[in-house]
Amino acid sequence: MILHYKCPGCGSDMSFDTESGNLNCHSCGRLETIENYPEDLVTTRFSADEANEYHCENCGAELITTAETAATSCSYCGAAVVIADRVSGLLAPAKVIPFTISKEEAMAAFQKWCRKGLLTPKDFMTADRIKSITGMYVPFWLFDLNSKVQVSAECTKVRTYSQGDYIYTETKYYDAFRDINLDYLKIPVDASVKMNDELMDKLEPYPYDQLKDFRTPYLAGYIAEKYNFTDDELLPRAKEKISGYVESYIKSTFTGYHSTHYKSKNIDTRNVKSHYVLLPVWMISYDYKNSGYTFAMNGQTGKVVGKPPISTGKITAWFSGIAVGTFFALKCVSFMMGGGFW
Ligand SMILES: [Zn+2]
Ligand SMILES: [Zn+2]
Asked: What is the domain partition of the chain in residue ranges?
């Protein structure tokens, strides 16, 4: 089933307007709020046939879709269409972050980035090499994870002092135990097989205060895809994304020692809750020396990623690591005089 968004005033096709956050009619200029737009007849009918052909209800042209396409535009008449079967039932996103960066703004950012010459050599980055520019809603799972951590370690504190003719080294040994409960909220993992994971990671963070309840009109005028991977399939990647934070949190609880030797470390991370969401990305593909490159931009914040990163990027504040009830058991078990030196 194909959804079209018709202007209640003049009957033309409407599409999402980044500036107002409404549906906009390009013919008469009418704006309709997403909430008030008569929400369509979204059905939960599924088409098992992946080679299903969809046709534009305006002009009858066949819509160019893949098995993943959830929203696109008619390549003949330009009408924005949403394939309802692919955003309903099990495929219904819980939330969406709407675009706030328009196509013009994305183009301008690309040109500015070209001028800065971030990708050498200087001459090549001109915007006329653009092959395509696409506003795309990329499917993501947002994971709420909980890690229960138990660590026991042997730690030392060393002190050197002199007394008379002797220099003493005193080493205190501590048996330390940590019982830590960590919650990580909304860890994003992209669920599209064709999106470069590192590229997507680089576009973070997404401002979650902009998450809206999903409604199909948000997709009008963009490409949207349904997920390829379930949350179960992506859980290992979500765990991997937080593992560095878990480790550094553990480390941060052992301060003030000269050495820390972990005797045992048990980390149990579970998926508390996962939400299926669509996040906005501008993709610009361009050619240079017979190779294709991708410029990507966060459609909400305008953050730019020029090319697939080589090193894993520094992932910033997309998670909130909350240490709940951190419990330190600290016991001094032995005291020992080191050998004297002279
Ligand atoms: Zn109109
Ligand atoms: Zn059409």
From this structure: 101-190+229-287+310-342
